[in-house]
Amino acid sequence: MGVMRFQVHPHEVVQDWPEWESAYLTGLDGRVFPTRNELAGNLLRCTRHTSDSGKLHVAWPVPGFGRPVLSTASLREFDSEYLLALELARGKISELRDQTFQWEFAGMAISQEYRAQLGEAFASFSRASACRDDAVESSRLAHQAIIEACTAAQMLGRSYTEQRENSRRLSSTHPPALLGCELDPSACQGSLHTDFFDAFTAASVPASWSRIEPVEGSYAWDAIDELVECSQQSRRVVRAGPLVDFAPGGLPDWLAPWTADFDNLQSFICDFVETAVNRYAGRIRMWEVSARANTGGGLSLTEEQRLALTARTLEAAQRSDTEAQFFIRVEHPWGEYQSQGGYRISPLQFVDALIRSRIGLSGVNLEIAIGCSPRGDRHRDLLAFSRLIDQWSLLGVQLHVTLALPSSSAPDPQASTTPTPQRPLLGSDWDEATQAAWAADYVSLLLAKPHITGVFWCHFHDGAPHRNPNAGIVRADGTPKPLLKVFQSMQHIEATPPGSDSHRLDGDGTWVEG
Q1: For residue 286, how far is the Cα from the chain centroid?
Q2: Cβ contacts of residue 130 below 8 Å, gap of 6+?
Q3: Distance from first CA to last CA of the chain, Å, rounded?
């Protein structure tokens, strides 16, 4: 049994810091350990089953940046207590230095403004380290270093996005990846039709088994037919699915009695996948076959059963249409859910096992729903998103990302998960301006990543049934939010003129990450 102890200062943080309960430890290889946390006074105690060195990850209040997840550097276990703020500052500055080296080595221009900002963060961290015997003062200086380091991280992430975008536009006039959104009937009529298809190059058509076959043997295809026809008339790429959703409530209710009979359950699922893919063969060339199998919850299936069913559904889809592309959706791609126990396979290992089986997996869709309780993700900065994509790109398959972020904390009767989002995590209340600003930064970053082939928003209209509360692009009354203009602008951006100080290119006009 391994234990790490952290002193938490100042006292005001402890009084308003519910995020300590979701803190978790990871190993040197990124594996998430089941972690039990206890907070007594200002002492945070984190327990796991191994005594190896590890990193602590926890959401931390940072003025101006909300409550992003920060990480310590790799720490060994010892009898004394760490100062949490000091170790979070050390971890953030180490991340910045590592990322700066990698991107500069790949040819990215690093501005003097960024270097100065990083220098300020390091100076504050040095002063905090020098007075660590005074825990309160050291934590105060470390907290200042964290603010300065987060500012530097934002500068570096935005600079990366700008330089990648300009490099790409100088060599190609085509968008780097699909930009899409889940389609609903509201976008196929009236002014919203123009709004939707002016903003997106792809449409995600919902095609879940629970809606198509709510009663065994009785299929309802009309809604999907209409959405597919609408997309194809507008000459947009169609991605349909997920056909099979392993989350709670994602599978048809009539399937529950077959849970104990795995062979028959597998047969039912594969038959439906074959039926759906065969029906649209030649019309839909991109499918999400399954979703959220890494986390599960539906029908109380075990991890091994979900992995086996995911493999069988991919095989069934491949048999039905050898020309189509087949994706699976992964929920919580950072894997923090493993800290609660009950999981042996990380999300990356889950997908890697499928790829090694050579069963026709074309790509992975990473679902990131910030602040959407209870199954949402914690807020992270641009560099954390960039590192996540770099890690998943090692699998060598296409990567899509589906995003969600609420624009309000008001009750949402159309949401299938919860009526209200989590407390504000981004430094301001959940509002439409915050949603639009976040998307402008994060969607742009993802589109700039060379391994991303598609970025999708969770849903279009808050007045239609959806999963994530208040996260749509159009309000329930049918009027667009500022987010719509963000996506429309991404289709009409000109490159910064060559020779601008905002970017540097190598000899052939592009720079490529190492």
Answers
A1: 21
A2: none
A3: 39
